[in-house]
Specification:
This protein is an all-alpha fold. The chain has helices spanning 6-14, 18-37, 43-59, 71-90, 105-112, 117-129, 132-143, 148-155, 159-177. It has 9 helices and no strands. InterPro entries: RNA_pol_sigma-70-like, RNA_pol_sigma-70_dom, RNA_pol_sigma70_ECF_CS, RNA_pol_sigma70_r2, RNA_pol_sigma70_r4_t2, RNA_pol_sigma_r2, RNA_pol_sigma_r3/r4-like, WH-like_DNA-bd_sf.
């Protein structure tokens, strides 16, 4: 059945056919799980969130619009929201203080993209301390390598606000690394 196009696959799932659901999971579960597992430290919880993502997708397949996003991106949008809800229930709210220090994009990129192993470790520790939504944004942009248009769809954040939020998050990382 793996020869189905994305459109055929969606239609098979809409018809409630089990083989369509099985095919969707086999095609996309690994990618969805990887995105969730970068945010959720407990692998059992990540697996459960992955299952919840597909259950929600199956029950809401009629809301999928192929003109807005690919099936993979739509599934990641569902996973994003479920994961943020999960993280908000489990983590205390952290209020960030804004810093008005001006840092150019070039300075940020140079500082955050260094390949030294100890710097990468330090960067990962700082990322883990970020609020859930900022961590998810960095995951989608850097680890998932998704374009801003897809991230806009997944998060529901307007493009200009998304670019601004990404800049502020990178700036926060820069400040924390240089303290």
């Amino acid at each position: 059945m793996s020869a189905l196009t994305e459109t055929e696959l969606v239609e098979t799932v809409r018809q409630g056919r089990r083989e369509g659901q099985t095919e969707m999971v086999s095609r996309y579960a690994e990618r969805v799980f990887a995105m969730i597992a970068r945010q959720v430290s407990d692998m059992m919880d990540a697996q459960e969130l992955t299952q919840d993502t597909f259950l929600r997708a199956f029950s809401h397949i009629d809301s999928y619009d192929p003109h807005k996003a690919s099936l993979s991106t739509w599934l990641c949008r569902i996973a994003y929201r479920l994961t943020l809800d999960y993280l908000r229930r489990r983590r205390p709210v952290i209020v960030a203080m804004e810093d008005n220090t001006d840092i150019s994009d070039e300075e940020l990129e140079a500082e955050l993209s260094t390949g030294r192993e100890e710097r990468i470790e330090q960067l990962m520790e700082v990322i883990d301390e970020l609020p859930d939504d900022e961590r998810m944004l960095l995951t989608l942009y850097y680890f998932e390598d998704r374009p801003l248009t897809e991230i806009t769809y997944i998060t529901g954040i307007e493009p200009a606000a998304l670019a601004n939020r990404l800049y502020r998050t990178r700036k926060k990382l820069y400040r924390k690394l240089n303290n």
